[in-house]
From TrEMBL:
Any Pfam family: Alpha-amylase
Domain of life: Bacteria
The encoding gene: treY
Organism, as annotated: Micromonospora zamorensis
InterPro entries: GH, GH13_cat_dom, Maltooligo_trehalose_synth_4, Trehalose_TreY
Lineage: Bacteria, Bacillati, Actinomycetota, Actinomycetes, Micromonosporales
Protein name (database record): Malto-oligosyltrehalose synthase
Glycosyl hydrolase family 13 catalytic domain segment(s): 13-398
Length: 768
């Protein structure tokens, strides 16, 4: 663990349009909000115009499009002036190669091939011939558009180097002499000769297991850490690396004082490996916290509804097996081919089929010691059940995969993580629509909510094992914003009304894909009111990700026209618009209650809480790029100033109540970390105790309301109470003082559905 982990972070999507100077300009606001560290998107030079920074093209410099080194220095001065630290995001798995001229190392590899000094940087299968680049149109005559210009090969806007001594003749003749071959974009998934990030040809895999590659790609960030200019490092996608444990050991040795968190997505019940890190980036916490506000009793109702709407019973296990198998054999066919070639003792097609089945049946993203053997055994059993005809091939491949020194055993885990991500996150989450609030990174739609007892076990275990792990509710990768999910959770308390309403809507505005229609209506209700163009953009992306009725590779114009027509009806048909608006308005107050509850729980539970940019107010964002939209920090400054002036905002005013909860909680954590060093559930005694979740962190007690509609139907808090400490405590949100003992919840939660109870002296400091 680092000397001093952050108290709380705030994630900013530094990018062109919101550069390092714009980030420096909000540092004073972040300090007022209560965070201890700015948590930045990747800062190294990225593909020109990149809006996310995960496509690094030059590890030697700060992205000039966000202000370069001078901008970084100005940001550092602003942070130091407010005594804030910096956490940076790094991308060890891959580099951006979509614009070859922007990446000096890739450009040199294209020009010199195996003789390039950078040939070992990228995970290229040189034995399969020329390096294939899938940039051409799907047209046999596409190469006719190739030209030689300024000693470069040009294909429309694409530029490629020409090897020395190979530039004479026609463009086609020059092309045939290069170390690379330009091919149709459709050949990419099946034939590429380099490892990619998932199925993105513009992101080429790096070989950071090579100490020289590690040193070259990490030198700048590690110099920042050594100089005390970086306090924490977030590691993107460690599952893609050949040797994550070895990589993280090397990174920890190079940055021993850094707070180190990994974007490791854990399946339900899975434990983080015993790596030299401080924890994950918080998806495990997101799932536990979000599930706490879902009524687990409604699972049967939503399963029955899904069956009625789709006309069939859908098995999550069968669906994900099918989508993962498709990812392995189609999107990741090139990677599958490379692995099959490593098992020449098995006929090629049988090796491909066995590897694909094992990847589809693998129960987690990737197996790691000591549990990796167990996961492999489970995958072998399931694959054998589904494909008994492959028994001999499965046995032969599995024997190889058990050997950690076997190259096949080292590379196969890189495939399983990609298969899980593409097959589940990016496909099944858009096809399975039983209850889409659960279709979230790190969550599992197969588990319908989390009980308070289960949450307390989870939080208590975090306090013991991973007290400095990050917690979050929203990231740039979440499928829906935290407040959308909070509002959708209300539907779990209204299964009958929702079933009646969505059935009527789907009959009134039918789609040929009823499963996707159910996802569409849930998303609309969860985000309403939402600008028309945002919803159009979302449904098109979501439908293509689902890949059931349309797709990215082969868009179905007829289906997409019907889909957009339904969206337009939501805005243009008066009765439909009114019904949608009415239902959204009816569940919004309970959604706000859930939002405040899950935010307080996330900010106070064991771990380092992160606030994603803008989510300190209500945030009804959908999947990226929607969740990367500009944030109005001026509005947030003004509201925070009013709160600091004594205003106690009503729950229905601009999200200011959420800002009150965020600012008071973060300030308390920053000023008094000693109050957050333990974990003890605080039970509610009385007839509606299941509607409260409360815990003592070692001096401060968080209290939140769950299932608010059920609470209202029960007549409110009735005679339900909490046992408070003997000493006085003050609620940071209202200023009310409680003298301890059995205290009725209708007193504690009279103004807000949440309370944060702290010693009076700490409360005064946190409010200022």
């Amino acid at each position: 663990m680092p000397a001093t982990p952050p108290k709380a972070t705030y994630r900013v999507q530094v990018r062109p349009g919101f550069d390092l100077d714009a980030t420096a300009a909000i540092v004073d606001y972040l300090a007022d909000l209560g965070v201890s560290h700015l948590y930045s998107a990747p800062l190294l030079a990225a593909t020109p115009g990149s809006q996310h920074g995960y496509d690094v093209v030059d590890h030697r410099e700060v992205n000039p499009e966000v202000g370069g080194e001078a901008g970084r220095q100005r940001l550092l001065r602003a942070l130091r002036d407010k005594q804030l630290g910096l956490v940076v995001d790094i991308v060890p798995n891959h580099a951006g190669v979509a614009v070859p001229a922007a990446n000096p190392a890739w450009w040199d590899v294209l020009r010199r091939g195996r003789d390039s000094a950078y040939a070992d940087w990228f995970d290229i299968d040189w034995d399969r011939g020329r390096l294939l680049l899938p940039v051409l149109a799907d047209d046999p005559a596409a190469l006719d558009d190739l030209k030689v210009v300024d000693n470069e090969l040009r294909y429309h806007e694409h530029r490629f180097p020409i090897a020395d001594g190979t530039g004479d003749g026609s463009a086609g003749e020059v092309h045939d002499r290069q170390h690379y071959e330009l091919v149709s974009w459709r050949r990419g998934d099946a034939e590429l000769t380099y490892r990619r990030f998932f199925a993105i040809a513009g992101l080429a895999g790096l070989r950071v297991e090579d100490p020289a590659v590690f040193a070259a790609t990490h030198d700048l960030v590690l110099r920042w850490a050594a100089a005390g200019e970086v306090d924490g490092i977030r590691v993107d996608h460690p599952d893609g690396l050949r040797d994550p444990a070895g990589y993280l050991a090397r990174l920890r040795a190079a940055a021993p004082q850094a707070w180190l968190v990994v974007e490791k997505i854990l399946e339900y019940g899975e434990e983080l490996p015993d790596w030299p890190v401080d924890g994950t980036t918080g998806y495990d916490a997101l799932a536990a916290v979000g599930g706490l506000f879902i009524d687990t009793d409604a699972e049967g109702d939503f399963t029955a509804l899904d069956t009625r709407l789709t006309g069939q019973h859908t098995s999550w296990e069968d669906l994900t097996h099918a989508t993962k198998l498709a990812a392995a054999t189609r999107l990741l066919a090139a990677e599958l081919t490379r692995l099959a070639a490593l098992a020449p003792e098995v006929p090629t097609e049988q090796a491909r089929a066995a590897l694909a089945e094992l990847a589809a049946a693998f129960p987690v993203y990737r197996g790691y010691p000591p549990h990796g053997a167990r996961h492999l055994a489970a995958a072998r059993s399931e694959a054998g059940r589904r494909r008994p005809d492959l028994a001999a091939a499965l046995d032969a491949i599995t024997r190889r995969l058990r050997d950690p020194d076997d190259e096949l055993g080292q590379r196969f885990p890189q495939l399983t993580g990609a298969v899980m991500a593409k097959g589940v996150e990016d496909t099944a989450f858009y096809r399975w629509s039983r209850f889409v609030a659960l279709n979230e990174v790190g969550d599992s739609p197969a588990y319908f909510g989390v009980s308070p007892a289960e949450f307390h076990r989870f939080a208590g275990a975090r306090q013991v094992r991973w007290p400095a792990s990050m917690t979050t509710l929203s990231t740039h990768d979440t499928k829906r914003g935290e407040d959308v999910r909070a509002r959708l959770a209300v539907l779990s308390e209204l299964p009958g009304r929702w079933a009646e309403q969505v059935k009527a809507w789907m009959e009134y505005a039918p789609l040929p894909d009823p499963s996707f229609a159910h996802l569409l209506w849930q998303t609309a209700v969860g985000a309403w009111p939402i600008e028309r163009e945002r919803l159009h953009a979302y449904v098109e992306k979501a439908a293509r990700e689902a890949g059931a009725s349309t797709s990215w590779a082969d868009p179905d114009a007829v289906f997409e026209q019907a889909l957009h027509a339904v969206v337009d009806l939501m805005y243009d048909d008066p009765s439909l618009h009114d019904e949608l608006t009415e239902l959204a308005a009816a569940i919004t107050p309970a959604g706000w209650c859930n939002s405040l509850g899950q935010k307080l729980v996330q900010l106070t539970m064991p771990g380092v809480p992160d606030t994603y940019q803008g989510t300190e107010l209500w945030d009804n964002s959908l999947v990226d790029p929607d969740n990367r939209r500009p944030v109005d920090f001026d509005v947030r400054r003004e509201l925070l100033a009013r709160i600091d002036g004594g205003w106690r905002p009503p729950i229905d005013t601009d999200g200011a109540a959420k800002l009150l909860v965020v600012s008071r909680t973060l300030r308390l954590r920053r000023a008094h970390p000693e109050l957050f060093t333990g974990y003890r559930p605080v039970p509610a005694h009385g007839p509606v105790g299941r509607h409260a979740v409360a815990f003592d962190r070692g001096g401060v007690i968080a209290v939140a309301t769950r299932l608010p509609l059920g609470l209202g139907r029960a007549g409110g808090w009735c005679d339900t109470a909490l046992s408070l400490p003997v000493n006085e405590v003050t609620d940071l949100f209202t200023g009310r003082v409680y003298s301890g003992g059995e205290t009725p919840l209708d007193e504690i939660l009279a103004d807000y559905p949440v309370a944060l109870l702290a010693p009076p002296t700490a409360s005064v400091e946190a409010a200022s």
